[in-house]
Amino acid sequence: MPSFYVENFGCRAARADGEAVSARLRAEGLAELAVSEADVVVVNTCSVTAEADRDARAFVRKTRRINPEAKVVVTGCYAQRAPQELATLEGVAAVVGNSHKGLVPEIVKEIAQKMERGQEHSPLISPASLLAVSSSAQIWADDRFAHSYIEDAQVMPGLQTRPNLKIQEGCGNRCTFCVIPTTRGASRSLAAAKVLAQVRGFVAAGGKELVLSGINLGRWGRDLPENRSLAGLVREILSETGLPRLRLSSIEPMDWTPELIALMRDFGGSNLARHAHLPLQSGSDSVLRRMHRRYRPWHYQQKVAALLDAAGPELALGADVMVGFPGESEAEFRETYDFVASLPFAYLHLFPFSPRPGTRGWELHRQSPVAAQAVTERMTALRDLAAGKSLSFRSTFLGRTLPAITLHTPAQLAAQGRTSALTGNYLPVEVAGSFPANKLLDVSIQGSDVAGTLLGVIDIGMATEATANYVLQ
Predict the structure, then answer these.
(1) What is the pTM (predicted TM-score) of this model?
(2) What are the structural domains of the chain?
């Protein structure tokens, strides 16, 4: 039987792409094996930083070492940005940009089948869609993005207990540091009927928590003929599909409309997760202006206040923060530090600025780079601040009961008689007892370990009969 393996890098939307590729290939009858055994290895790349590029290249080389007979298909943002560069790597049979990602399952299937028959993998499908051949690798990538969606793979609970449903692709913003408009194209929305069909199919398959994701999720629906809003779609999902829990992935600050925030008041704590991720990037007004971000620090603060008012103190607030943007002075960094310190963040995603070819930030970095030592020191300061905020947020739930979903538990933890779970407000917790993945439980938080991980037990008084049976076993 032809076989495959998919390795995902990057954001939730990219992972959703990889999950869709895997689902399509399984449906076509291909076996999903370990990277060391698969006929075809798909590397689904990110390119938001130079480090992301390096990680992808390193994985291709690793694949070549542990499975020299495998054919490698590289897709994702790096494949869109620099396809010729990837095509020169040893073992790469095809490079498929985001513009043609919908063809990846078909390309992988054909390569695997021809390997099984002992045939050369060239030529592959759709010669008219083939853009170039570099060495032994074939390249699909252009700027039309006509084949970018993988729409027909039903999202299912499985290896991912909480799978991502990507409903929006591309971005029309022009932040000076970001390569995404080049690697993903303009904003495009999945039709509402298809979104609702996916959610209902997920519920019918026994799914409990679904994550709505997109490259610029808050812009969903604005390009559709009926000019829909994300808030309207989410309300429809929560009211009409029977989905036990919906979680929203990252949404830009200015896309948190009053209607979307109101959903936290109406459904937060029931079937909408009390969790909001608002990319910040910087708390300095002057830096945000150089970044061409569409909000100011006080705008951000107003959105956070409105969300907390709607969802209450259980809301897990997260943000992305960039350090070392070109020209960032010590005073501007201090503005960011103080701004972050003033808000009740549950966690932060911190990363240093990485100049991306083709962006305005590339030229700004050439003109006004921030010293590496300063970036390191600033990253350390923010990490310490973020760690303290995370610990403070987690500690407020000691002795309380929180809704949670069980995850696939690592063998080492299962051997200790504990189960991995995630609370509705995005807190990892280890639950005493052995439970299968994809179960909704009410967990009484009893304490934390030395690493700060929350420890809990099932609240028997709130458990369903089925859950109580698991406890008694």
Answers:
(1) 0.90
(2) 3-140 (3.40.50.12160), 164-395 (3.80.30.20), 401-472 (2.40.50.140)
